[in-house]
Amino acid sequence: MNIHDLYTNCRYCPRACGVDRLAGVRGFCGESAELRLAFAGLHLGEEPPLVGRGGSGTIFVSGCNLGCIFCQNYQISSERMGRAVSDGEFAGICLDLQNRGAANINIVTGSHAAPAIVQGLAAARNEGLHIPILWNSSGYDSPAALELLKDYVDVYLPDLKTLDSGIAAKFFNAPDYPHVAAQAILKMIEYRPLAQDLARGVMIRHLILPAFLDSTRAVLRWFADHAQGRALLSLMTQYTPMRRNGAPECFLNERDYETVLGWLAEFGIEDGFCQELVTGSDWLPDFGKANPFSSELSVPVWHWRTPP
Description:
Number of helices: 9
CATH architecture: Alpha-Beta Barrel
Radius of gyration: 18 Å
Helix content: 25-40%
């Protein structure tokens, strides 16, 4: 069966919209069966094991199955920036990244497009793609999608945004996010046991939300209880108020940052990464530009305005 046929009654993300994306009907993610991309490039701003010598070969997928009100990539998640690509063009992008020295292929926010991405990765493998594949997701992944992906993904990079259903409903438009993400991450850990230097395995990312430190403490406790020694933690401080839809308009302060660092010590969490305190918004991407990121962070390889 053509893998795109899985979109006929689409239930490949936890929304389970059941729409016929092959017929052009769009579910919560806003996407049909076409795979749309916004940008691909060599990204130097990821965690050190992911960057390697040449940078992480990031591919940003348009659309999203969450509704985060402070999304830094809102231009592509909800404002429809991006262009449809064929399996062949997707494979070509992957191979171009590999040829330019990418340490890996880093698929960003592809949870709603897993069937099309798998077909594109299969085409790329057939043409010589051999570097590791990273699945960089919100954590809002269904068991069906993870089963589809398991033979292709080497490293999983899920978010664990919160374990509080109230916060998930208010800020991510997904009250079931805590249960779904926790179960998805445990399945990822089962599929990819942690290897030295993160050659394979799972790295769980958590963005600290200012004014909701109790949520971060719960996530750290969950990590200590369920993932310590089986996955790495990446603690992120780059929450930036987007002044959209009621997002909290504050930055993480030094006192709260030190509080969270103290919790790492309390829970005995040592394996992973902790971002330095980040303030300001100069680093925010603009996907309307040929290089959405600063030249220090990214080398562009493909852009959605590039002619097919």
